[in-house]
């Protein structure tokens, strides 16, 4: 594997804080396939590991996991913006969504429109990184 591919797939056994001046946003989703609901969660932490914002939401879901993961990313970015973040590291365990955000692949599914909103929302921040992390 080349260095860039390795860098985008951060394998860590525990959460690590961002550098000073940055906020780290960790996002995830949970699917309730019986009731067609998805839960979105985001936690925003500073370089000391202190939580500066947290947000949860639900929406009616078609069962599309990648779409739900993308909505969790957008939700986390909105939480970071409300917390006054200027430099953000976004972490998700959805490799597909991170690849879409980082232009490593494209999609013609409904997820495209959420990715489009994420690309636009990135402009809010002075610095923005999106990286894949393994689920713990």
Q: Helix and strand layout, with pairings?
A:
Blueprint: H1 3-8, E1 9-10, E2 23-32, E3 37-45, E4 51-60, H2 65-82, E5 87-92, H3 95-101, H4 111-121, E6 127-133
Parallel strand pairs: 1-6, 2-5, 5-6
Antiparallel strand pairs: 2-3, 3-4
Helix pairs in contact: 2-4
Q: What does this entry look like structurally?
A:
The protein is α/β, with parallel strands linked by helices and 136 residues long. The relative contact order is 0.21. 31% of the residues lie in helices and 32% in strands. The protein has a single domain, classed as Ribonuclease H-like superfamily/Ribonuclease H (Nucleotidyltransferase, domain 5), CATH 3.30.420.10. It has a six-stranded mixed beta sheet with strand order 1-6-5-2-3-4. The chain starts with a helix and ends with a strand. It is built from four helices and six strands.
Tell me the overall shape: globular
At the fourth level of CATH, the homologous superfamily is Ribonuclease H-like superfamily/Ribonuclease H
How much helix is in the residues?
Answer: 25-40%
Integer count of domains? 1
User: Total helix count?
Assistant: 4
CATH class: Alpha Beta
Mean pLDDT, to the nearest integer, reads 90
Strand percent estimate = 25-35%
| CA distance, first residue to last residue | 22 Å
CATH topology: Nucleotidyltransferase, domain 5
Tell me the major beta sheet: 6 strands, mixed
**What is the topology, as strand order, of the major beta sheet?**
1-6-5-2-3-4
CATH architecture: 2-Layer Sandwich
Which regions have little confidence, pLDDT < 50, spanning 5+ residues? 1-8
